[in-house]
Amino acid sequence: MNYKHHFHAGGFSDVFKHVVLSYTLEKLQEKNTSLTYVDTHAGRGQYYLGSSDAKKLKEYVFGIDALFNYSKHFTAPKTIQHYMDTVDKTKSNFIYPGSPKIAEAFMREADRMILSELQPDEYKFLKDNMYRQDKQIAIHHMDAYAAMKAFLPPKTPRGIAMIDPSFEKRNEFLMLEHVLMHSFKHWRQGHYLIWYPIKDKKNVARFQQFLFGLSAEVVCIDFFIKNLAITTNLMGCGMALINSPWKLPELLFDEALPYLGAALQAEWRMQRSLDS
Ligand SMILES: C[S@@+](CC[C@H](N)C(=O)[O-])C[C@H]1O[C@@H](n2cnc3c(N)ncnc32)[C@H](O)[C@@H]1O
Questions:
Q1: Interval between CA 121 and ligand 1 midpoint (Å)
Q2: Cα(3) to centroid of ligand 1, in Å?
Q3: Can you give the pTM of this predicted structure?
Q4: 5: Cβ below 6 Å to ligand 1?
C-alpha cells in the first residue's frame, strides 16, 4: 500500500467528494432519527497542506483555494458554505479536513461514526485526529471490505457508507462490485456514496452498468477538470450515490454542481438509473 492521500489533499477531487458528502449528510439530517456514518477508507482525518507531499503537486490550489477565491465574488449556496466553514476552521494553519472531519462537523448527539483505515501510519494519525471521549466515534485498523461486512447494516435506524478506495489494485472495481453485492443483500435500504477515478473510461462504464443493474435508485456524477495546465495525475473522478436521499440529485444538479463547476473550472454530467 503506497498510496498517500497527502499528495491530493484539498484538490478538486476532494472538494467535489466532500461537497457531495456534505449535501448528503445535510439532507439525511432533515429527519430527526439517528444516523451512523461508516467511512471505509477514512485516511488520516486531516492533512497538513504545508507538508512536502502536499506541496509537491499543490493540488489544493485548483481545489479548495479556487473555491474560496470564487466565493469572494459569487455567494456560495448554504451547504457549500457550511463545508467551507468547516475547512476555514483549520485552513489558516494549512490544514485541510478529510472526510471523517467533514462528517464530524455534521454530527448530532445521537449520531455515530465508524471509521476504518488499513495503512498503519494513516491509522495512527486517524486515531489521534479523531479521538473523542464520548465514544460516538469508533476507529478501526481494518480492511475496508471486512469493515463493510462487519458494520453494515449499522445499529441505528439509518446509515450511510462512504466508500473511497485508493484504487491501487487493478481489480478494485471488481472488488467493489463483490462487496457491494454482499452489503446490498443485507442492507438494501442503506445509503451508499462511492468515489471512483476516471482514468480508464471502459472500466468506469462497466462499473456504472453494474450499479445501474442494482434494484435501487442510483445516480452517478462524473466530474472533469477543464484546465489541462493543472498538475494532477487525475483529470476526472466520479461519485455514485445509491439510495440517495429524496430530492438530493435535483439539489446537486441545480445548485451544487453548477457552482462547483464554475469555481473549479470543471465539467460534469449526471446519469440516473431507471429506478430514480
Ligand atoms: C482516498 S484516501 C481516503 C481519503 C478520505 N476518505 C478523505 O476523503 O479524506 C484512501 C485511503 O484508503 C486507505 N486504504 C487503502 N486500501 C484500504 C483497505 N483495503 N482498507 C482500508 N483502507 C484502505 C489508504 O491508506 C488511504 O488512506
A1: 12
A2: 8
A3: 0.97
A4: yes
**Smallest CA separation from ligand 1 atom 27, residue:** 43
CA of 115 to the centre of ligand 1 (A): 10
φ, ψ dihedrals at 267, nearest 5°: -105, 155
Domain count, the chain: 1
Q: What is the DSSP letter of 265?
A: T
For all residues of the chain together, what is the average pLDDT? 94
pLDDT at 144 over 90: yes
Mean pLDDT of 45-62: 91
Q: Does ligand 1 have an atom closer than 6 angstroms to the CB of 80?
A: no
Query: Would you place residue 4 in the very low, low, confident or very high pLDDT band (cuts 50, 70, 90)?
Result: confident
pLDDT band of residue 243 (cuts 50, 70, 90) is very high
Cα-to-centroid distance, 148 and ligand 1 (Å): 14
Percent of the chain with pLDDT over 90: 86
Region of 269 (left: φ > 0; alpha: ψ -120 to 50; beta: rest) is: beta
Judge if the beta carbon of residue 140 lies within 6 A of ligand 1: no
pLDDT in tens, 187-201: 999 999 999 999 999
Whether the link from the prior residue into 120 is cis, omega within 30° of 0, is no
Domain that holds residue 67: 5-272
Q: Is 104 near ligand 1, meaning CB less than 6 Å away?
A: no
Measured from the Cα of 100, ligand 1's closest atom is 9
Supply the CATH number for residue 233's domain: 3.40.50.150
Q: Scan for cell 449520531, then name that residue.
A: 111
**Angle, CA 114 vertex, CA 126 and CA 179 arms, to 5°:** 110
Report the nearest atom of ligand 1 relative to the CA of 165: 10
Q: Which of 275, 229, 238, 234 is nearest to 257 (CA)?
A: 238
73 CA → ligand 1 middle, Å: 34
Contact 21, 162 (CB under 8 A): yes
